[in-house]
Design a protein that fits this description.
The protein is of the alpha+beta class. The protein has helices spanning 5-15, 55-64, 69-77, 82-91, 97-108, and strands at residues 3-4, 19-21, 26-33, 36-44, 52-53. The strands form two sheets. The chain has a three-stranded antiparallel β-sheet. The longest helix has 12 residues, at 97-108.
């Protein structure tokens, strides 16, 4: 069983709470912290919910979302927490310690 577009949409919309923009050729998602775009990814409007994502697409999305392919796969499978993603963003210098703390605190309140 592979990763489907539904899995991707769930992760981006419900788990990471990315902003969605589907006005162009692709559906785009933006992960923002303090109003700043930290990461973004996209997929084609032609894809449907059961479209399977191949390894090249997952690799590209992981790069766009600024995390390792391993972390991205685990997130999509529901086997990693969003805090693990936030920690990877912190370790790679994409967010500050304060932003990490704010994101973690915000998620513990949900």
């Amino acid at each position: 069983m592979g990763t489907s577009l539904r899995d991707l949409q769930y992760l981006l919309e419900r788990v990471l709470r990315c902003e969605r923009d589907n006005t162009g050729k692709h559906v785009r998602y933006f992960f923002k912290v303090n109003g700043r775009v930290v990461a973004q990814t996209h997929y084609s409007h032609s894809w449907r919910g059961n479209t399977q994502l191949d390894n090249s697409m997952l690799s590209m999305q992981a790069k766009e979302m600024r995390c390792s392919l391993k972390t991205w796969r685990l997130l999509l499978e529901g086997r990693a927490s969003k805090e693990a993603y936030f920690r990877e963003l912190l370790q790679n210098g994409f967010i500050s310690q304060q932003e990490f703390d704010d994101l973690s605190r915000e998620n513990s309140n949900r």
